[in-house]
């Protein structure tokens, strides 16, 4: 059984997201913990959270993958802005406790000229401040395309952040468009890329996937998503992914440039690629 879903709008409420997901054949989903381009979070609603938790269980959903705001840059150069970003991470993780057991994924950040090493240590510092061992959430770093000063474009950088943070519940969310744009050849050598991931990060850290085709060539460092099968990754790559013994068990989130009915079609197409 594949766990497939897409990004839904948290403003409709938690239970409503579960119902929307079911209406398009999804059995997991992602949502932004606050406005993706801003910092405002919705007020908490414990009754809605409880109703969502029981609906997720009744309908056997896979783990959800919440997404931190794009504007949260833990390694920005201005110390006040950096402290504010760290504060947002703290607040997001505290809120995630309302829906226990799910993933919280975020973009590690852009070092904006400070250098990769400084960026990595600033990201790790913020994470150490925000993570509390009692939080029932696994925090995931997203693999990035390496656009501009983005950190997380190589497996080595992700490993360095994990090492610097230490022993919390941490993992990685692999974005198929990002790793391809970052230079990893998942089209011709998916197993080779996964072996490399295993050597450097460890496959036990791989917790979720973002399924996106790419508008660009490998190593373009561009990060432009395309609909499944319509870009340079192609349908065969996704066929291999949904039939892969390790990958097929992970929650798979679509972030393709389409709408809800487009997601419904992509989900059913991906399910049809799974060999019985
Ligand atoms: Fe992302
Ligand atoms: Fe992504
Ligand atoms: Zn992207």
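Sequence proposed for the structure above (276 residues):
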């Amino acid at each position: 059984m594949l766990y497939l879903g897409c990004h839904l709008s948290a403003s409709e409420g938690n239970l409503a997201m579960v119902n929307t997901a079911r209406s398009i054949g999804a059995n997991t989903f992602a949502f932004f913990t606050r406005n993706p381009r801003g910092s405002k979070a919705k007020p908490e609603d414990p009754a809605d959270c409880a109703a969502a938790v029981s609906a997720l269980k009744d309908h056997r959903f896979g783990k959800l993958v919440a997404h931190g705001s794009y504007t949260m840059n833990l390694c920005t150069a201005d110390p006040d802005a950096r402290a504010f970003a760290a504060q947002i991470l703290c607040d997001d993780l505290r809120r995630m406790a309302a829906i226990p057991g799910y993933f919280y994924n975020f973009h590690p950040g852009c070092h904006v000229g400070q250098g990769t090493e400084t960026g990595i240590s600033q990201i790790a510092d913020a994470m150490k401040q925000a993570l509390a061992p009692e939080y029932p959430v696994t925090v995931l770093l997203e693999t990035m395309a390496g656009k501009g000063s983005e950190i997380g474009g190589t497996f080595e950088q992700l490993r360095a952040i994990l090492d610097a943070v230490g022993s919390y519940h941490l993992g990685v969310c692999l974005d198929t468009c990002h790793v391809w744009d970052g230079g990893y050849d998942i089209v011709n050598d998916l197993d080779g890329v996964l072996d490399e991931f295993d050597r450097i990060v460890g496959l036990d850290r791989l917790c979720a996937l973002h399924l996106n085709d790419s508008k660009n060539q490998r190593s373009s460092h561009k990060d432009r998503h395309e609909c499944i099968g319509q870009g340079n990754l192609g349908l065969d790559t996704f066929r291999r992914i949904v039939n892969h013994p390790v990958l097929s068990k992970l929650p798979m989130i679509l972030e393709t440039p389409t709408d809800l009915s487009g997601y419904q079609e992509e989900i059913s197409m991906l399910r049809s690629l799974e060999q019985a």
